[in-house]
């Protein structure tokens, strides 16, 4: 009988550990700037307005080479970790983030905010981009 209690206790500890780890990964610091989401049309308006923006494509290099928005730089989502990104030295710059469908751009925007960037805006996926793209 005591073996069953030990096994149940181990299972409980593992479940609690996994739950805590998942919750910790989703936590964004309280001082992080709010997450912003806009449409492709709003992003294009910002690009054309003369406002200084940095366009960041968070897809893989192969996806980027297959077609990207004019002026975008490629910073794969997987390369955004727990510190600032060398290709994005200005923490206060207006950063417009996109990916293929909108999932990775949302993840990347949250990660950038968590490491200290203050003006990160997600405009979703290139599949919803009605404007032209550049191919390498």
Automatic annotation (TrEMBL):
Presence of the UniProt keyword Transferase in the record: yes
EC number annotated for this UniProt entry: 2.8.1.1
Limits of the Rhodanese domain: 49-135
Record-linked InterPro entries: Rhodanese-like_dom (IPR001763), Rhodanese-like_dom_sf (IPR036873), Thiosulfate_ST/Rhodanese-like (IPR052367)
Molecular function as annotated in GO: thiosulfate-cyanide sulfurtransferase activity
Coiled-coil zones: none
Keyword vocabulary terms for this entry: Transferase
Enzyme class, spelled out: transferase
Designated name of the protein: Thiosulfate sulfurtransferase GlpE
Organism: bioreactor metagenome
